[in-house]
Amino acid sequence: MLSRVADRIFWLSRQMERAENMARILGVTSNLVLFGTKDVQQQNLLAPLSITGTEESFFASHDSLTLPSLIAFLALDEHNPSSIYSCLRWARENAHAVRWQITSEMWETLNGTWLEVRATSPARVTGAGATQFFDWVKERSHLFRGVTYGTIVRGEAFNFSRLGTHLERADNTARILDVKYHVLLPSVSDVGGALDYYQWTALLRSVSSFETYRQLYRDQIYPIKVAELLLLERRMPRSLAACFDLIKDSMDRIEGEHDQAAKRLAYELHARLTHADIEEIFQRGLHEYLTDCLADFGELGSRIQRAYLGAV
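The chain above was modelled as a monomer; its predicted structure follows.
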């Protein structure tokens, strides 16, 4: 497969996953801002900007941070490369460029999603309609992944699609957990209180793992167990360990002439997550651990780009 084709497939899958992740983050934020003091509400509004690294660009074009301005910026702002609108546009454009390498069902799903989001008015993502819009984005992402898995031949296009999806998912899970634990760390009086509990519950719901937590732990929600679920639990599809099981599997199936560095780092990260102990992670510091993970994910993405997709 040509590197430019692999690049398009890798990124269209990352962009669909990124759009879904943004919808999840905004959906939870919309609920969180209903609780707590004004300072807590402001922290919750800042969290999505911290997760996506867009705080500076937001305030360059907005005077104040409110829920409507946040949603407008992260949902439908065509000038924000991290917005849902931009992700769906680029996913569709990448798919159009490699139309012959993907199935008709994949193309129709992506094209239909783009046409609908392009026709979406700002009024649709305000008030009660915002939740419906976020649910629609998640459903379209689910549909795309299901159609991809069910129709595409198990070849290099499939492998690059899976690689892009799960690298993006691992990065997002780590960012969400880090923001809750580090940026939204409650005051001493709030630890274990109703607000703290609601924020951890919201985090679990943002990655579709609240029911999974209850099923596996049958216990009160504790930060260390939430971290264990999202980092090391292979039965949880959005955990880092589960993502890297699939990343390693995809890279095992991809052959390149100069991919040793990329594969070595992917295998190191997989081994690190396979043999990690959550108690040791907390003793060292969860924020420090996640910071290192995010740096390594970025480096892995760069090595994948150089090995398979063309020079960065």
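Residues 3-32 form the longest helix (30 residues).
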